[in-house]
Amino acid sequence: MSVAAYKRIMLKLSGEALMGDDAYGINEEVVSRIVAEIAEVTHLGVQVGVVIGGGNIFRGMKGAASGMDRATADYMGMLATVMNAMALADAFRRAGVEARVQSALRIDQVVEPYIRGRAIRHMEEGRVVIFAAGTGNPFFTTDTAAALRGSEMAAQIVLKATKVDGVYTADPHKDPLAKRYHRISFDEAIGRNLAVMDTTAFALCRDQKLPINVFSIFKPGALKRVVMGEDEGTLVHS
After folding, report:
1. Residue at 157 is within a domain
2. Which CATH number goes with the domain that contains 221?
3. 142 a known binding residue?
4. Number of neighbouring beta carbons within 10 Å of residue 187
5. pLDDT one-digit tens code per residue, 21-74
6. Could you tell me if residue 3 is inside a domain?
7. From CA 132, how far away is CA 82, in angstroms rounded?
8. What are the protein's UniProt keywords (predicted)?
9. 171 is in an annotated binding site
10. Does the residue 138 lie in any domain?
11. Is 59 annotated as a binding residue?
């Protein structure tokens, strides 16, 4: 049996990833495909945490740009992530994978509150833990939540799932000469203003010596290849 390179991972999924080619909401076919990719990794014995975004339903920054109070908009965005997390957990249930949702905002009637020790126990017992509501605070992105939860859960790596298969020197959709970085340091990523994750998330992972791998969740088998330690995506390291 193949041996994974990592025992515990923190996967960052954007809300937009759940839309597929739709303009809004949750595409069930896409969610099922993502869940199947994650399930394959759990079958290797890898413990998985997932931080989910909410941009497919509501984005706080967009609400603030239209004149809404920023904190209010961010809290609304957090609630959108709870909806996505519940949909993801239900898809795991249908796929025969145990999952639990833990929210940084208390909504005890529908999901568990975030409790670090309980989350670690769930992961040790083979359940996928889906972390919703970001950090529970406005002005912080779900990228930062992924860095924070990854550090708290003692994950060995944060996996940033995107629509492109890594970090490039330029937008590969616009520049055919753009080249993928196989590896890049945190300082380089921050210095070159590579907008793959926000600076706060990069800085937290750098300080905690928690590497990040940026890869495409839409590339079949990519998640497994990253977990197996193969050259997939871009590794951002200290």
Report:
1. yes
2. 3.40.1160.10
3. yes
4. 12
5. 888 899 999 999 999 999 999 999 999 999 999 999 987 667 667 788 999 999
6. no
7. 5
8. ATP-binding, Cytoplasm, Kinase, Nucleotide-binding, Pyrimidine biosynthesis, Transferase
9. yes
10. yes
11. yes
pLDDT tens digit sequence for 89-125: 999 999 999 999 999 999 999 999 999 999 999 999 9
> What burial class does residue 109 get, using C-beta atoms within 10 Å of its C-beta: 0-12 exposed, 13-18 middle, 19+ buried?
exposed
pTM: 0.94
Domain, as residue range, for 79 = 8-237
168 is in an annotated binding site: yes
Q: How many domains does the chain have?
A: 1
SS3 234: strand
Beta bridge partners of 9: 48, 157
Is residue 139 marked as binding? yes
Check whether 12 is labelled as a binding-site residue. yes
In a domain, 122, yes or no: yes
141 labeled part of a ligand binding site: yes
Residue 74 annotated as binding site: yes
Q: Report the C-alpha gap between 185 and 116 in whole angstroms.
A: 29
Spatial distance between the Cα atoms of 74 and 104, rounded to a whole number of angstroms: 13
Any known ligand binding at 138? yes
Rg (CA), the chain: 17
